[in-house]
Amino acid sequence: MELNQYLDLFIDESRxxxxxxNENLLELEKEPTNLAIVNEIFRSAHTLKGxxxxxGYEDLANLTHQMENVLDAIRNNKISVSSSILDVVFQSIDDxxxxxxxxxxxxxxxxxxxxxxxxxxxxxxxxxxxxxTIEVKNESDQLTLRYDEYDYTVIEQxxxxxxxVFEIKVELTASCxxxxxxxxxxxxxxxxxxxxxKSNPSVDKLETEQFDAVFYVxxxxxxxxxxVKNVIMKISxxxxxxxxxxxxxxxxxxxxxxxxxxxxxxxxxxVAVTVAPENEQKNKATAQSNSKTIRVNIxxxxxxxxxxxxxxxxxxxxxxxxxxxxxxxxQETVERMTRVSSDLQSIILNMRMVPIDTVFNRFPRMxxxxxxxxxxxxxxxxxxxxxxxxxxxIDEIGDPLVxxxxxxxxxxxxxxxxxVSKGKPETGTVELKAxxxxxxxxxxxxxxxxxxxxxxxLEKAIKxxxxxxxxxxTLTDKQVFELIFASGFSTAEVLSDISGRGVGLDVVxxxxxxxxxxxxxxxxxxxxxxxxxxLPLTLSIxxxxxxxxxxxxxxxxxxxxxxxxxxxxxxxxxxxxxKVIDFRGKVVPLLFLNDLFNVPVxxxxxxxxxxxxxxxxxxxxxxxxxxxFIGQQEIVLKSLGNYLTNVFAISGxxxxxxxxxxxxxxxxxxxK
Amino acid sequence: MMSQVxxxxxxxxxxxxxxxxxxNVKSIEKIQFITRxxxxxxxxxGVINLRGVVTPIIDLRLRFNLEEKEYNERTRIIIVTFEDKxxxxxxxxxNDVIDIPNDCVESAPEVVGEQVHDYIEGIAKLDKRxxxxxxxxxxxxxxxxxxxxxxxxx
Lengths: 672, 154
Fold this sequence. Notes:
The structure holds two protein chains of two kinds.
Chain A: H1 4-30, H2 35-55, H3 58-75, H4 83-104, H5 114-124, H6 129-143, H7 149-160, E1 164-172, H8 179-191, E2 194-200, H9 203-207, E3 214-221, H10 225-233, E4 238-245, H11 248-289, H12 298-325, H13 328-351, E5 353-355, H14 357-360, H15 363-374, E6 378-383, E7 388-390, H16 391-412, H17 416-421, E8 428-437, E9 440-447, H18 454-463, H19 469-474, H20 477-482, H21 505-514, E10 518-524, E11 528-536, E12 541-549, E13 552-557, E14 561-568, E15 573-575, E16 578-583, E17 586-592, H22 593-596, E18 609-617, E19 620-626, E20 628-636, E21 650-655, E22 661-665, H23 667-670
Parallel strand pairs in A: 6-8, 13-22, 17-19
Antiparallel strand pairs in A: 1-3, 1-4, 2-3, 5-7, 8-9, 9-11, 10-11, 12-13, 12-20, 14-18, 15-16, 16-17, 18-19, 21-22
Chain B: E1 5-13, E2 16-21, E3 25-30, E4 44-50, E5 53-59, H1 60-63, E6 76-82, E7 85-91, E8 93-101, E9 105-106, H2 114-117, E10 120-126, E11 129-134, H3 136-139
Parallel strand pairs in B: 2-11, 5-7
Antiparallel strand pairs in B: 1-2, 1-8, 3-6, 4-5, 6-7, 9-10, 10-11
C-alpha cells in the first residue's frame, strides 16, 4: 500500500499527540485523581496506536497499546496513579518520541521496546486478572456447541420421537495429515445412521482444515452410543471419541445462564454508552478551546506573499493612473482596493506567526526530568506562551532556549539543602517569560539561584586568557557577566560549581545573533540570574534604511544602524592609509561604498560634505559613505536564489514599490 | 520504431543557433530593468524581479566569452530552471520551438567554437541547420571566485 503521502501527516500528528500526552501527564502528576486528564491521555494514546498500526509501525503500535492498557486500568480505577507509574509512562513516551523521530528522519521506527512493554505489563497486572479470566471462559465456550431456540425445538422433538441425541467429541490423531478428509469421512458415516444437527467448528471450517485435531458434533440417531462409537472408530486416524447423551435440562440451564450473562453484558454496554456522551462532551469542550487549524506548507505562504507583492506593485501603478486620469469613480475604486489589500497584507504576514508555545511546551517535561536527575526541586513558570513569532524564528530558537534552561537548572538553582541553609525556599523557581516590545520579542529565562560570582568568572576568564588581569580590574559587573558568552570561556571539564556557567553559552550567543537578535545576562549574587534574549518578530520582514549609490539603491538593516550623519569633507582624517572620522569621540573608519561595490560613476559628488551611515557589529563601528538617504522602510527579505550564493556583503534582496530589486547590505561582512 | 523526440527552445547567440530542452525553460521574458549585483562574475548581469521572485541573470555572450552586444527589442531573457537553481539567460533572440529526434544529436566535435565547447552537450543536425544543445549543468557551474574584500576595523 502506498502510505508515503500520509507519512508527513502521520509524523506531525504523532508529535502533536505525544506532546499532548506529555502535557497531560504533567497535569496528572499534579492532580492524580483527575480522571478527565487520564481520559484525554487515553484518547491521544489510542489515536496514536491506531495511526501507527495503520502505517505499519508495529513497535510503535505495540508500545502504545501496552501504555493504553495501563491508562485504561487507571481510568477504571483499577490502579491508582503514582510517581513510579508515571515514570514508566514517561519513559515509554520517550521511546515513542525516539521512534517517531527515527521515522521522520527516514528510519523504520523500530526500537527494542520489550523491556518497557514488560514494565507496563507488570503495572497493568495484579488488577487485570479479572478480565483475563473472562477471556479464558470465552475460549472454553467457543469449543463447546451452542444451540439456539430452533435447535432446542428440533432436539426436543427428536427426543419425543424416540431418537437419541448425542454430543460427540472426535479427536483425530496428531499425525493426521488430511484432517478435512477424515472429518468428512466421520460426517459421512454418521449421516448414514442419522442426522447431524450441528458441528463445531462449522462444516465449512472443517472442510478447509481450520481446526486443530478436535471437533464436536451433535448427532440425532436411532442407534445407541456404542454403535455410534463403532461407526466412528472404523475410520482410521481417529484418536479418541467421546460420546455424551444430550441432557436437555443441562443445556437449558446453561442457556439461561448465558442469557443472564448477556443481560449483564448489555447492561455494561449501556453503562459504557451513558459514559460515552459525557466523554464526548468533554471532547467537544477541549476541541472548542483548541482553535481550528489547517496545515499549510510554508513554501506556499511564501508564494502567496510573492504574488501579493506583485499585486501591491500593480496597485501602485493603478493609483498613479487613476490620479492622472482624475476620474472620480476610478479613484474611489482604487482607494477601496488599497484598503482591502493592506488588510490582506497584514493577514498574510500574520499567517506565518506561530505562538511561542510550540517551543515552550516541551520545557515542563524537560525540567521535570532534569530536576530528578539533578536532585533539585524546581518550579517552572511559563509566562506569555501565547506570544507570536514568525515560524522561521520559532524553528531556530528551540535549541538556544534549551541550553539556557539547562544552564539555569544545572548551574543556577542550588541544591535544596543549600537553599534552605541560605534561607531560601527549598524549591527553586525558573521563570520563562516571552513578551512583545516594539518590533521585537523578548524571552527571559530567570531563576532565583546562586547568581554569578564576579570573582569566579574573572578567575576563569583570566585562566583561559580571555582577558588579562589588568583588563579584569577595569571591567564593570555587566561586562564581566558578558564574558561567559565569550568563546573559549567554557572548558570541556564538567564543573558543578558556579564557575561552570559558561558551558556552550558562546554557541547560544552566536545562534541568537545569526537570527538577528541579541542575548544579555544580568545577575545578583545570591539572588539569581536572568538571561534575556531579544529577537526580531520575523526574519522575513525587516526595517531598513534605503540609500542611493549613484543610481543604485541599497537597503541597510536598521538593526545595525546607529545613526546617520552628514560629515564635512574637511573633517575626514587619515590614519594608516584609512579614511576615518571622529564620531562622538570615537575614531570610526569610513567605507566608501561606491568604491567598494565598483558602482559606475555618472556624476561626481561636488558638495562639501558626505552622507554617512554609522553601523555597528558588536561594539565595533564603521561609517558607510553613501550618496544620499532615501528613507526608512519595511521590506520583505528575499534570497538571491541558489545560483548566487556568497555574494560579498549582500545578505539578500527585496523588491521595492516600483518593482525594482534592491540589494540588502550585510554589515557584518563589512566589519571584521 | 519511433525514435525519441525532445522539444527544445531555439535561440540565437552571435549568429549561431542554440537549444535548451523545453522542460528546463520556465518562461521567456523581454529585457527589463536589471539590478546590478556588485563583486560577482562579469557575466552575471544582476538580478530581476520575476513576478516577485528575485532571479539572477546571466549574459550568455559573456558567459561564453563572446563579444558583448547592446540589448535591443529582440533581446530575450530565457528563464531556465535546473535542479534547485532558477536563472535567466540573456540571448540575442529566441524564436522557435522544434522537435529534435534523439538520433540526430551527435556529441560535440572538438573543433567547434572553442569558447563554448565546454558547455556543449551535443550538436543536433536538422536538414542544414546546426543546433548546439547546451549542457546546463556546466553553464550554471560557477567557481565562486568573487574575492572576499573585508575591511579591517580596529
